[in-house]
From TrEMBL, chain A:
Alphabetical UniProt keywords: Electron transport, Membrane, Mitochondrion, Mitochondrion inner membrane, Respiratory chain, Transit peptide, Transport
GO cellular component terms attached to this protein's record: mitochondrial inner membrane
Keyword Transit peptide: yes
Its job: Accessory subunit of the mitochondrial membrane respiratory chain NADH dehydrogenase (Complex I), that is believed not to be involved in catalysis. Complex I functions in the transfer of electrons from NADH to the respiratory chain. The immediate electron acceptor for the enzyme is believed to be ubiquinone.
Organism: Dipteronia sinensis
Lineage, opening ranks: Eukaryota, Viridiplantae, Streptophyta, Embryophyta, Tracheophyta
The protein's name: NADH dehydrogenase [ubiquinone] iron-sulfur protein 4, mitochondrial
Gene Ontology BP annotations: electron transport chain
UniProtKB/TrEMBL annotation, chain B:
Lineage: Eukaryota, Viridiplantae, Streptophyta, Embryophyta, Tracheophyta
Domain 4Fe-4S Mo/W bis-MGD-type: 281-337
GO molecular function, one term: 2 iron, 2 sulfur cluster binding
Cofactor(s) for this UniProt protein: [4Fe-4S] cluster; [2Fe-2S] cluster
Record organism: Dipteronia sinensis
Keyword Transport: yes
The name this protein goes by in its record: NADH dehydrogenase [ubiquinone] iron-sulfur protein 1, mitochondrial
All copies of domain 4Fe-4S His(Cys)3-ligated-type, residue ranges: 144-183
Length: 155, 739
């Protein structure tokens, strides 16, 4: 065991001696300004996916539910329609690596965060307007308000 | 049985004790809310992080001086006087559980789920019905509130069947969600559950009435929003049932919305029954094109298939509702689709060819005819991009006979105020008198009709209607059937004229069906006379509206799709139909060459020589302008069928084959071309009001034709290629339309 550690230590020292003069001193310029699209390039994303058109939006409340737990998130829609039903099993195949990323993978807390993310990955984005409800005064007493004579057409 | 009962009674206290730990849990399941509430308890000072209202809601203050301050969990909020406790909580960002309360319906206060604790109140209060008073201290997550809600939940679940695994609402059920937070892990109810006979509400709404919790949202929706008195409640206590009193279908064009508002699985979608689970679906937020309103929708798809369509909130356009046509037309997207380019052979049968061959033939024929013999007609579902490309292409070919179906032969595209809804859809709520001229909003634009209904209900607005006999779901005065009545009003001889001139905010709505009339200019000039005399158009109020019929119309007129000559069909040799199915081609010469580019094998295909497949609205990005002049964009939800392409791409390719290359080859390129022609089409999601009024119009010399107005929509359920291909819409027209 000690022998093995010694070997690694020596190896590390040798490596540092060779690498250090070439490597950037990371500590000195920690705040590196990222160029748009740089993250995508660095992480090895294929060229054709570096320039995508995406839509940033905040999902509307589901009409079927009243809960608000899923509201206020921002998402990216890749407009991926490159999919087809696989003739073998009937499952859905896709030719787009981002097909399921936008819906399932991304959740941003704010519009700005989503925009920044898209910029860093070099995506051309459009932000959809988020429609919000308008709260108006409602009252229970409204039910019993006099609204004129009842209609006479027997409806 | 007896032994079992005794045994269960003996066991019950034990159960109760074991679940007491459960009772002490704080009720809000969101950790962030919990922590902030805990902070509130620790420090009574309002040193709290700012909270945002639920769903980013805006608060409408009618009078800023009427604001009162209440405290929700120690957090102070300013709300308008008269708001309920539940709304105050919503402004404070606290979501109160509820079943019967719906923000767009009247308050019933019968489910009791929204109980909260209010300081100095001896009992928990139903927050949905209790008006908030100044300085009220509302506590939403105290043990009292939690216990109250748990009690309510236990009663609700008493008679609710345990069939979540086979219920279509499963996964998007309010009762399911809230029972996760407030439900007990075991039932104490040992009697039999009640069961209720299912009702037949027609081909759209499936009922499983045993699941009903009597929230009466559907009853209130039917009478308040849909304007039909079909649904009601029968019986009392455990015999209480929702029903239609007598065996009757729900004949409303908004009936599909009861599926959404039902908090449980009692009312679900019949066409969607057992087709998919909601967590398998991918939602794409897009725009509806089946009418000119441009309702905001979400297309839910699974893989390459559209599974259902749901409404999406937009206060200015469709609020939270959509029409049945919008909701259930989706099965038409899978049937009768054109998926390959085809050429009609000598035997009259279509043969599948490659895109290259099809485009080569079209380009060749287009060059053989004289430029003035070329015409292009855009269909009612066309997007602005493809109409721009079609117009540019035909102009390059030397022809200027391009128009959009439904705008008539001589459309007036010069003044934008002459073809859009100047009041805006939400602006209709301020009106107090409506004059409907040759329009039946109930079938032409359901969401506009819903607004009118809302206005009539809210401030007793008066409605006068000129046109053929028709059904209205609000009080309406049938003034006459033809333009003569209009003339009487304009001359002040009709009693309705005084209603208009005495009104504060009068609204005149002219139907787009009038566009097809020969004397439309005369009709519009009479309408403008009424507007002038009745003070309908003022600097602060524009009540003169045109209600369009089709999704493509407004954008087509904005882009200037106006035919050069009104009878160009008579001499046409080359006709480019871009999804146009309702053009009268009887006068067309027999040797004319017809190219049909579209997504459905509908009427336009019958005479076509070449078919070029295109993508439907659910498969492409396109700009549509709605009847109030608000441009909106669709987003692709599913892949196209077969070898189909976007309309504008096909035209762009054809222009290259024909040697008249259009200068754009991306969506961005064609949109910047659109910006040059109609910049308002690029102002997405924003209503662009018309700048110039009717006063700039030249004098009209046309004579008024006393012929009656015709109804523009014969069958509400089948108005375009998609809805005509839809099986559900066929069922609706068979069972719901009056014979």
């Amino acid at each position: 065991m000690a022998h093995a550690l010694q070997r690694i230590w020596n190896h590390g020292r040798a490596m540092r001696a060779t690498v250090c003069p070439l490597s950037r001193p990371f500590s000195s310029d920690a705040l590196v300004q990222l160029q748009p699209g740089e993250i995508g390039k660095v992480s090895g994303i294929p060229e054709e996916h570096l320039r995508r058109r995406v839509v940033i939006y905040s999902p509307a409340r589901t009409a079927t539910q009243q809960g608000s737990g899923k509201l206020g998130k921002w998402k990216i829609n890749f407009m991926s329609t490159q999919k087809w039903e696989n003739p073998l099993m009937g499952w859905t195949s896709t030719g787009d690596p981002y097909a399921n990323v936008g819906d399932a993978g991304f959740n941003f807390d704010s519009e700005v965060a989503a925009k920044e993310f898209a910029e860093r990955h070099g995506w051309e984005y459009v932000v959809k307007k988020h429609n919000t409800p308008l709260l108006k005064v409602k009252s229970y007493a409204e039910n019993f308000k006099w609204k004129g004579l009842p209609k006479t057409d027997g409806n | 049985m007896g032994l079992g009962l005794i045994a269960s009674r003996a066991i019950r206290p034990v159960n109760f004790f074991s679940s007491s730990r459960f009772l002490l849990r704080t009720i809000v399941s969101k950790p962030e809310l919990q922590s902030s509430a805990a902070a509130a308890d620790a420090s009574p000072e309002p040193d709290l992080p700012p909270r945002t209202p639920v769903g980013g809601a805006r608060v409408h203050f009618t009078n800023p001086e009427d604001a009162i301050e209440v405290f929700v969990d120690g957090y102070p909020v300013k709300i308008p006087k008269g708001m309920t406790v539940l709304q105050a909580c919503e402004v404070a960002g606290v979501d109160i559980p509820r079943f019967c309360y719906h923000s767009r319906l009247s308050i019933a206060g019968n489910c009791r789920m929204c109980l909260v604790e209010v300081e100095k109140s001896p009992k928990p209060v139903a927050s949905c019905a209790m008006p908030a008073l100044p300085g009220m201290k509302i506590k939403t997550d105290t043990p009292v509130a939690k216990k109250a809600r748990e009690g309510v939940m236990e009663f609700l679940l008493m008679n609710h069947p345990l069939d979540c695994p086979i219920c279509d609402q499963g996964g998007e059920c309010d009762l399911q969600d809230q029972s996760m937070a407030f439900g007990s892990d075991r039932g104490r109810f040992t009697e039999m559950k009640r069961s209720v006979v299912d009702k037949n509400l027609g081909p759209l709404v499936k009922t499983v009435m045993t699941r009903c919790i009597q929230c009466t949202r559907c009853v209130r929706f039917a009478s308040e929003v849909a304007g039909v008195q079909d649904l009601g409640i029968l019986g009392r206590g455990s015999g209480e049932e929702i029903g239609t009193y007598v065996e009757k279908l729900m004949t409303s064009e908004l009936s599909g919305n009861v599926i959404d508002i039902c908090p449980v699985g009692a009312l679900t979608s019949k066409p969607f029954a057992f087709k998919a689970r909601n967590w398998e679906l991918k939602g794409t937020e897009t725009i509806d094109v089946t009418d000119a309103v441009g309702s905001n929708i979400r297309i839910d798809s699974r893989g390459p298939e559209v599974m259902r369509i749901l409404p999406r909130l937009n206060e200015d356009i469709n609020e939270e509702w959509i029409s049945d046509k919008t909701r259930f037309c989706y099965d038409g997207l899978k049937r009768q689709r054109l998926n390959d380019p085809m050429i009609r052979g000598a035997d009259g049968r279509f043969k599948v060819v490659s895109w290259r061959d099809a485009l080569a033939i079209v380009a060749e024929v287009a060059h053989q005819v004289k430029p003035e013999e070329i015409i292009g007609i855009a269909g009612k579902l066309s997007d602005a991009e493809s109409m721009m490309a079609l117009k540019d292409f035909l102009n390059r070919m030397g022809s200027n006979n391009v128009w959009c179906e439904g705008t008539g032969t001589q459309p007036n595209a010069d003044l934008r105020s002459g073809y859009i809804m100047n009041t805006s859809i939400s602006g209709l709520e301020k009106a107090d008198v409506f004059l409907l001229v040759g329009t039946q909003p109930r079938v032409e634009a359901v969401m506009v009709n819903a607004r009118i209904h809302k206005t009539v209900r809210a401030n007793n607005a008066k409605v006068g209607y000129i046109g053929p006999e028709t059904d209205f779901n609000y009080d309406c005065q049938h003034l006459g059937t033809g333009p003569n009545t209009l003339k009487e009003i304009a001359e002040g001889r009709h009693p309705f004229f005084s209603a208009i001139s005495n009104a504060k905010n009068p609204v005149i709505i002219v139907g787009a069906g009038v566009f097809e009339r020969e004397d439309k200019d005369a009709i519009f000039s009479v309408v403008e006379t009424i507007a002038k005399k009745g003070n309908v158009v003022r600097p602060d109020w524009n009540g003169l509206n045109v209600l369009l019929l089709n999704a493509a119309q407004a954008a087509a007129l904005d882009l200037g799709l106006v035919p050069e000559s009104s009878n160009s069909i008579d001499s046409a040799k080359f006709v480019y139909l871009m999804g146009a199915d309702e053009v009268n081609l009887d006068k067309l010469p027999d040797d004319a060459f017809i190219v049909y580019q579209g997504h459905h094998g509908d009427r336009g295909v019958y005479r076509a020589n070449v078919i070029l497949p295109a993508s439907a609205f659910s498969e492409k990005e396109g700009t549509y302008e709605n009847t109030e002049g608000c441009a909106q964009q669709t987003l692709p939800a599913v892949p196209t069928v077969g070898d189909a392409r976007d309309d504008w791409k096909t035209i762009r390719a054809l222009s290259e084959v024909a040697g008249m290359r259009l200068p754009y080859d991306t969506l961005g390129g064609i949109r910047s071309r659109m910006r040059m022609v109609a910049p308002n089409l690029l102002q997405v999601d924003e209503r662009e009001p018309a700048t110039f009024g009717h006063s700039l119009k030249p004098e009209v010399t046309q004579k008024l034709n006393p012929a009656r107005f015709k109804s523009a929509v014969e069958n509400f359920y089948m108005t375009d290629a998609i809805t005509r291909a839809s099986k559900i819409m066929a069922q609706c027209s068979a069972s719901l339309l009056k014979k």
